[in-house]
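Quick illustration, no need to memorize.
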Amino acid sequence: MSIESPRSAVKSSASRPKSHVLVTGGAGFIGSHLVMRLLADGKSVVVIDDLSTGSLDNLQAVKSNPRLRVIVSTVSGCAELSELAATAESVYHLAAAVGVELVVNSPIHTLQTNLHETEVLLDAAVAPAGADIALGRQTLGGAVHDCKISGAPVRDPGDLDGDAIAAVAVRLVLP
């Protein structure tokens, strides 16, 4: 596992094959289990996580795996996001501002943060490397009918009555 800061050098993705799976929030409880499964399946995995609620301890079992790269950053603060999204075979977006206390005390801030980070990731996923962000928004708006968004609810293991959904893992698959 290599751990890097968000200021890593950005490289061109022109003519590069899809080489990895990108997992945001990969150091969280759910994300780390997904990362372990992807690595067990032989995938190379890049994790972006700011460790605000996740922990590198969750990745302890796979820390020596050479196919794992961890970037400690927010999604929006990751200098390599466009490159990573452009060269990813798939993207799992699990990064989120979470926690009962945070949501109760700052619900608007929590929603704005989560929506902004998701918007930045979607822009990077649909925009050609080096393209203007506005082009990414325009491309997403024009290509939604060609996109398939799939995801399954992930239940909170601490939820006693089984009614609450903790997160929905969304996989955006472009044509």
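Residues 7-15, 129-156, 165-175 have pLDDT under 50 and may be disordered.
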